[in-house]
Request: fold
Amino acid sequence: MTFAYYRRLALALCLGFLIFAPLSAAHADPVDDALALFATDSFNDTASAIDAIGKSGASNSAAIVTALAGGKLFFDPATKTVYYRDAAGKLIDAKTAAEVAAEPAGLKTVRLNNRLRTLVAAAAGSLDILSDDPAKRRSAANAVFKSRDATALAAVDTALAKETNNGVKEALEQARAAIIVTFAGASEADKIKAINTIAGRGDGDAAALLRSLPADIPEAVKTAAADALSDIEIKQAAWAAGQNIVYGISLGSVLLLAAVGLAITFGQMGVINMAHGEMVMIGAYVTFVVQDVIRTSAPGLFDYSLLIAIPMAFLVSGAVGIAIERSVIRFLYGRPLETLLATWGISLILIQAIRSIFGPTNREVGAPSWLSGSLDLGGLSLTYNRIAIVIFALLVFFALLLVLKKTALGLQVRAVTQNRRMAAAMGIRTDWIDAMTFGLGSGVAGMAGVALSQIDNVSPNLGQGYIIDSFMVVVFGGVGNLWGTLVGAMTLGIANKFLEPYAGAVLGKILLLVAIILFIQKRPRGLFALKGRAVEA
Amino acid sequence: MILRHIDRAGWVFLGMVITAGLLIPALNLFVPADNFFHVPDYLVPLLGKYLCFALLAISIDLIWGYAGILSLGHGAFFALGGYAMGMYLMRQIGTRGVYADPILPDFMVFLNYKELPWFWYGFDMFWFAMIMVILVPAILAFVFGWFAFRSRVTGVYLSIITQAMVFALMLAFFRNDMGLGGNNGFTDFKDIVGFNIQAAETRAVLFFLSAMALAGGYILCRWIVTSKFGKVLVAIRDAESRTRFIGYRVENYKLVVFVLSAVIAGIAGALYTPQVGIINPSEFAPANSIEMVIWVAVGGRGTLVGAALGALVVNAGKTWFTGALPDLWLFALGGLFVFVTLFLPKGILGTLSTGWEKAQRRFRSDGSVPNGVPSAAE
Reply:
């Protein structure tokens, strides 16, 4: 990167200085003037002084403004010299920034009123451009970019001259370009150069700036601006599409987690488990209970609470699932409509049970520290908990795939699915396999509940919110096919996020439901339909 | 002619419904309030609501019990009928609304509508609204059924997409800019064809009409299921492919019965709205539609009378439970459903009649048939 880049940068800087050298020279020394005004002991003069010092870009102006805000800026009425007291309590000459050895007698404090305090705060904000904290400098540069306040130019130039952080330097350059573009004195070439700098920023603010350029600019500048604008718009559309895809994958992962357990019970066993959502809900409540226990007895473990909750949720939901299978569903095999209705009854019982135990209101489930914050990638912003859910969903999915394809249990599950009586004749305990399969599907739902507790309200209605979506995913993807569930979940998630900006969240969802209804007409057995004799059974 | 098809249970049922339709309004209007036989004012619309639910249950039983179509979205047709009636009732409020706008209902004034949306035109006329009560559910059922049956979506897939349909409608009706009152729906009705909707006489008439609709709906459905058309439906239910191979256009039969069922459900909804005094998008909730299926299953699928009975029993139970032990209602409903699917697969009426037949057979056979011979039904 570039030597050429830096050379260009340096060139741009030099040019900038050359152009604005006369501008700065006009005010011989703004700091001097400002300091003189501080010493007059008049509110109006102080106001001008704050304004001047804020825009001067002088190296110690930040210290002066801070001192002023803290009531630590003094002047000697006799010599009109201004001093301030720094954080260590030493008295500093404001002009020379040197420590004063002997404190002069009769110092007066520069007085403030409310109007001036507002000004001081504003000046402090623009002086952040010279702060020691790069983040502050960057945000100050962005503030200048948005305000395009021509009087801040000097301060920006000063800051640029000594900036070492590349990111901040870029932000400052853009801020400077934003000023130049609207600056009457700048030449056409400079304005075009500035437009290119702004275009490099490529975000909504840059586009807004380019759109709001005054009408009386030269034609060449105008075309450059229009070109840059269309560049930005293309870039932005690409980022927006990328963002939609990423959000879609995130939503798809949530759907995948909620639906993959259902895909097992529905696809492998032919059981329409309407209580599946409640298994998810139980998993979320297990997370709540685990965190509650940790909070009261071992607060140090809080960051590990989710890791503890995942196996717990699997076991609890799995056990509930096995209990349901043994007590109700095993009497209903081969009658899917009956399982649908009976499990719906069970779901009502579970909802009411949770409501009776934990109350009808939302329960607070905390996020461990390692899940807070977000990752910024260019125009994308991703919260860590969303990323974690994507990873977790894929882990669960592939673990499940392994279990079904590579383990003895998986083999037996598939055997029972394909031909129950033959499997029984081969010595497979089919009823035990039924219970285990149902337990596995329910346990996975429980783990989904742990993940959902991080992004949704933990309430007795948690499961109801996902059950229809989960069925849509399974039916869309093709029943009995885990890959279909993966593709179905991701397709629906991404489609949902692409529809949202045009149709709104609710209408987008409606459109998607209608699309699925129409899709099922076309392919009644879903995207990846199983073929063969077993399908009709 | 039609009445020939009604069996003994049907006559008992019709007798009870018609008697109730006459007796309850009479006991409410003409018996003094302190008399033991007086039916209090609050009870008339409540019982009327049950009658609407019974009619709705019959419409579900017609397609589920006889044609094997398990719709988990029948609430959609019920609610659409209710909304069509609600739109008429909203237009009747006129200047008596909070904002006293002669044309726009209150919620539209509130949402800054300048003029009536096109789909509200005509709803100030009773006859037009009544046509819509029938037409709107019929059109939805026709379009949906056309797509679903033609592409042979059956069984659980059909159930799941009917659920998606009602869910999509719920989301749509919850939107404020749908022009149908958003999540508040319609309420605060004033009068219906010129009569005060709150008056005891109006409610008595509405109750009577609900009873007549239930009786009429029953007779119609009974006639259908005992006709040749009904026999084909049962054949489709029991062996769809075979029926198709014999040469019947299965999808047409299904479509006709599905649309008819939707119309009956829509009429039930239209009678429901003025008696309950409110219609809102929660009627589209998928859970509501599943609950309706429960009524049918509890009463006895494929019996019509049982469906109506189930609706009455479950709803009376719901009223009692939610009043006396509100926390236990979901336990009771859920438990009832698990119990019925496991132990009473034929529902209350089916189990009773099987038991009755068995007892009769034992009584008639008088020991002449050797014990232990299982009947064909088992």
About this structure: The radius of gyration of chain A is 33 Å.
